[in-house]
Amino acid sequence: MSHPVLACPDLIRFEGDAPHLVGSRCDECGEVYFPATTSCTRCTATRMRTHDLGRQGSLWSWTIQGFLPKAPYDSGETPETFKPYGVGYVEMTCGIKVESRLTVADESRLKIGMPLELTLIPYRTTANGGEVFTFAFRPAASV
Predict the structure, then answer these.
(1) In terms of pTM, does the model score above 0.70?
(2) CB pairs under 8 A, 24+ apart, for 136-139?
(3) Which of 18, 123, 124, 127 is 20 to 30 Å from 136 at the Cα level?
């Protein structure tokens, strides 16, 4: 099974074709982190374990990114080709809030608390024409 090239492959794992976010969890106090980290800021422990955050969440807060972000953003877009996109905090089922792109940029379709699911979207094109993907959240297919 072949998976797409990812901008940040350490943030995603696959169950079949379904992407899941990967973070870490402190073995001492249970605090969950995204992205994964090697030490806990809550209890200062260094025994961290990989933790599957899943692929489902709900929209906690959002905005529309209306201008091309500054470096290190490297999508290959220019101010002329940039298209606004949604950005939100997604509360995962484990409770952690993850900042993410949203597949929806229409404010009439974004509602706090709406169910979302993880997907992959094209982020940039390599010099040889290959696509590189990043994670985003889209409205869930079913509630």
Answers:
(1) yes
(2) 136/100, 136/101, 136/102, 136/103, 137/57, 137/59, 137/88, 137/90, 137/100, 137/101, 137/102, 137/103, 138/102, 138/103, 138/104, 139/103, 139/104, 139/109, 139/114, 139/115
(3) 127
